[in-house]
Amino acid sequence: MAEQERGTPSGALPETVTGPEAAETAVPGSVPELGTAAVPETAPTAVQGPLRGGMILATLIISAAVANINMAVALPSIGQALGSSQAVLNMVAVGFTLGLAASVLYLGALADRFGRRLMLLAGLGLSIPAAALATWAPTIEVLIVARIIGGLAAGMAFPTTLSLVTALFRGARQVSAIALWSGIGAGASSLGPVAVGALLTRFWWGSAFAITIPLAVVALVLSLIYVPRRAGESDQPVDHVGGFVSVLLVGSVVLAINLAPIPGNRSTTLIMAGLAVFAMVGFIVRQRRAPNPLFDLKVARRRIFWVAALAGIIAFGALMGALFIGQQFLQDVLGYSALHAGLAILPSALLMIAVSPLAARVIRTRGSKTALLAGFSLLAAGFVAMLFWREGVGYLHVGIAYALIGAGVGMGGAPASRSVMGSVPVSRAGMGSATTDLQRDLGGAVMQSVLGALLSIRYATFFTGAFSELPPERQQDLSEQTAAMLKSSFGGAAHVAKLYPGNAAEIMEAARQAFTQGSRLAVGVGLGFLLLGLAITAVYFPNAGKEHNLNEAYEREDAR
Predict the structure, then answer these.
(1) pLDDT digits (tens, 9 = 90+) for 261-305
(2) Residues 6+ apart with CB under 8 A from 397
(3) How many domains is the chain partitioned into structurally?
């Protein structure tokens, strides 16, 4: 693997001045790439010693955690408090990743041009009022809007953290830094439900979003102190047209998938799907013709880039899908409280963080392909374990599934992120970091949407079949409104059970069976995606020697 990032000098860690006092100066003693001119005002500022480097990395990881912990939502509590259907709850869960995924490519390019630190600060600042709006949202519609705004704020901050890691760290330290950024960041996604569950034991559902506010304030202060003002930014113009089309493309894809299972939205779904196809064609045409494309298709065609990007989308999507389905299953079917359901995820979070240093060593010694294959294998094993979850299953089975998934993401996430960032020039770090974020966010949004839609459809189908088997007189007693509420979500069934206490046990047992069948279908499809990712990685990703040669070839190409 190439030990040197494109456009940066070799060495473990640069020496620079950081913080507000940092002048926009080049790294002392740095040498520009062959065939390029030094651009002092956009060169990476340096890190003064291991302590300063450690504080910068810690700051960037905390800033990334603001976005990752925001992905945790108390869906069952929200559904019961606001009387929302399963399909609408899916929108609450996906709203955040919708705002993030739709914006990261464009915002990453803006950060590359106008300043990564500035974009990071803007994102952290916006996340505070967005979290406050979600905390005290009076209706489900306001909550969805707040989640989308929060995702937009994360789209400003989250990709910038990885761009800064890539620009400020070198060689082996860069590999370790990206591994820690990836593992701890993903671990924060899993720790979110623990914090949310603890809050819900004493407070209302909105407190689940309030946790973001103090964390964002801390990250904002640390970023002002430690993050350099300049870190390898480019002076090339931004492709604003491509940026707008990218937002339209990703947003329409996610919306089409989420609107599909909602009754009465067939026309809107078809419009969104058509818009996505139109935007895809327009985006490709624009990127081929733009003098400074937002998403360089020549770089995207590099084998290390596209295979790693696809692998990351599947791996992180699997994590988000597992948490999305699993948390609801634990609370609705197994009867866990929100806190206990959050604590059940701890093996996943701990192993993500613990395995990250091991992933870095595997990447350095055996190459990214070995780490990716190991990650996919562990993830697939975790999904197989989830397939056997059923009513009354013990925690040992639950914990093993989450542990395998956490270890898989910890092992596979680092090489996916590192390979993408290692195959782009530092001047296009925004494109690489945006792609890495899309691994998590687009993968998470699509996987949550697909698995959530399958869950909703199978859940409703179960009750439709159950209604058809009832005697005619029982069917007549069942109003259309009650039937629709039963089929809408587990929370809807719980509401009907309260209205008919004499049949409450029968209703809730049927709801648990319906949810179990829906979750098995969703997990089975998720397992299929993982096996596909495993096969693509095995066939197309280069082994360690070939990977090293390709990275060196990319460096020579970018230096011309």
Answers:
(1) 666 677 888 898 899 999 999 999 998 888 878 777 887 788 888
(2) 385, 388, 389
(3) 2
